[in-house]
Amino acid sequence: MFEDSIVFCNKSYGFHKEDYGDYIYAGYIKRGRRNGYGSLTKKNHFIMRCLWDNGVPCGFTVIEYINNVDGISQYMGEINDLLEYQGQGRIQYTNGNYYEGEFENGKYNGNGLLCMNGTKYTGLFLDGVLTHSMTIEL
To answer: What is the pTM of this model?
Structure first.
């Protein structure tokens, strides 16, 4: 996804702001590519803040959704180079529900905690579905 949008500019390092279509990148670059801390904004969709390595997002990421896409207001955690939730993370929904735990390819996968309407479900998720659980009433 990011290979087509890697920022090349005249600066070889330092802080750079680039507006290209629907996306705006503001952050550090090295040898003309995003490198270090920066934010990528997709107009009317999201603001993503993270570390970049050679043009690809890496490590802990915060994504704030502007129009609350699919009822999601924020994601905090790891992502893959396709911008899918990957590894440990927390997704917060606009209605107050949340999921905290493991993700794979953008879906709940592995151990996690899902809080829906005040009830907490903890257990093992597979492709977004709770397969083994224990309910904790609040």
So the answer is: 0.80
Query: Rounded CA gap, 35 and 11, in Å?
Result: 12
- Counted residue by residue, the chain has a size of 138
In whole angstroms, what is the distance from residue 34 CA to residue 54 CA? 6
Write out the two tokens for 20.
């290209």
Q: Dig out the tokens for 107 from the structure.
A: 């879906």
Contacts of 32 (CB under 8 A, 6+ apart): 7, 8, 9, 11, 12
pLDDT single digits (tens) 87-102: 999 999 999 999 999 9
| C-alpha to C-alpha distance for 8 and 76, rounded to whole angstroms | 28
